[in-house]
Amino acid sequence: MLEDLLESFIPLFLLICVNLAVIFRRIGKLKVPAWTAFMIAALILILLQPGAYERAVIVIGKQVHVLIFLFGMFVLVTALDISGSLEERGKSLLLKGKSPKGLLLLIHFGLGLAASLLVNDTVAIIGPILLIAFTKQVRKYPKPYILAICYALTFGSALLPTGNPQNYILAIAGGISFLEFGIWALFPTFFSLFGSYVLLKYLLKSEFNEIKFPIIPAIAEKHELESLQRPSEGFFVVLIIGLILSSFITQISITLIILLITGIFLFIVNERDQILEKLNWEVILFFMGMFVVLDAVVSSNLFVNTISPFLNQLEFNFTSFVIFILIIFLLCQVLSNVPVAILITGILPGTPLDHPIFWMTAALTTTFAGATTVIGAASNIIVIDTAAERGVEITWWDFTKFGIPISILSLIPILMIGLLFFILG
């Protein structure tokens, strides 16, 4: 009896502790990165539960496609970053914002949509750096624009499986191709980006006016690894073409394409050591630890005997569609979006809701829910931490007072698609 109780509650207790560590990001004076918290929790599970080590190896093996996705995307994006390509493109984009309203629009439909190709966490690092430097040049208060980056990256990344980890995880689990995903997500993504733009412009009307910025000359800068720009940009284009073609050639998986193209890229370029040195290995460790902890939560009797039976009782109709959205949205406010996406892959298969529209809804809802609070998405934390290092502080309430109405608005296009699907279907 006691053993069953421990098996049920230990994983959940550890997950709660991990999320508290992620929220507060420190224990006393000790700073605790998210990847460290998950790896420690995974280690505790392995030590406390019999057979947990063998199960952890199996779980990570099953999710190796996610690790390959992250590694492959990070290789190319890191190459774009250290070659100066991302910085040059970002500066060029921001210079096109001739006024506060124009800059706000470019943040949403420039940086936001860039996140759908580059993985939002990457844009979350370089975006605030470029933006704070730009706002200093034009003598504008940077905080509203930093908030805009957070919301824009969340909504823009929803467009494609390459936009964020939860999209990729749910697209693979639901059997949704690269192109099919983009078609499903097109209207909700643009609706949410435009809605965020309009709401911020209205709620912060004194900040976003029509006053023209002073003209800033574009100054070309030399980068140490500038020779890496062309090959990294070329291979990135090849990768996107390959991912689109995978929608028509079902025998070739997205994972295989990413592995093949990044493998050839690393073989050809001479700067592979610099790329691998700068690679964001912490995110990969974060996911490995998360896979172990969340598998234990999903497999526990507490979870199996509550959420899974509830989903099995739902019927394939619009009412269940709305309930499904609400459950995911609320869970994301407690666990963050990637953990919820992984949990869904463990409970949705085999239920009456195991259908592409529910898999796509899960991807869109987990992503859009990330705009509600700071802890809703890792990209929010990255943007805010990066801004804080440069003297721009964003509090929990600064973010949430705009995040609540913006994220609720973003659910409207998902509900519209569901309503049309069940009416016409």
What this model shows, in words?
With 425 residues, the protein is mainly α. It is globular and about 60 Å long. It has helices at 2-24, 34-48, 52-62, 64-82, 85-95, 100-118, 120-137, 143-156, 165-174, 178-203, 229-245, 254-268, 272-278, 281-299, 301-304, 307-313, 318-335, 337-347, 356-369, 378-389, 396-424; strands spanning 26-27, 30-31. 75% of the residues lie in helices and 1% in strands. It is built from 21 helices and 2 strands.
Beta-strand portion reads under 5%
Report strand order across the widest sheet: 1-2
Structural class given helices, strands, pairing? mainly alpha
The rough form would be described as: globular
Secondary-structure element pattern, one letter each: HEEHHHHHHHHHHHHHHHHHHHH
- Largest sheet geometry: 2 strands, antiparallel
Which residues sit in consecutive blocks of at least 5 with pLDDT less than 50?
none
Strand runs, count: 2
The level of helicity is over 70%
Write down the overall mean pLDDT: 83
How far apart lie the N and C ends?
48 Å
Number of domains: 1
Explain the layout of strands and helices:
Blueprint: H1 2-24, E1 26-27, E2 30-31, H2 34-48, H3 52-62, H4 64-82, H5 85-95, H6 100-118, H7 120-137, H8 143-156, H9 165-174, H10 178-203, H11 229-245, H12 254-268, H13 272-278, H14 281-299, H15 301-304, H16 307-313, H17 318-335, H18 337-347, H19 356-369, H20 378-389, H21 396-424
Helix pairs in contact: 1-2, 1-14, 2-14, 3-14, 4-11, 4-12, 4-13, 5-6, 5-7, 6-7, 6-8, 6-10, 7-8, 7-20, 8-10, 8-20, 9-18, 9-19, 10-21, 11-12, 14-18, 17-18, 17-19, 17-21, 18-19, 19-21
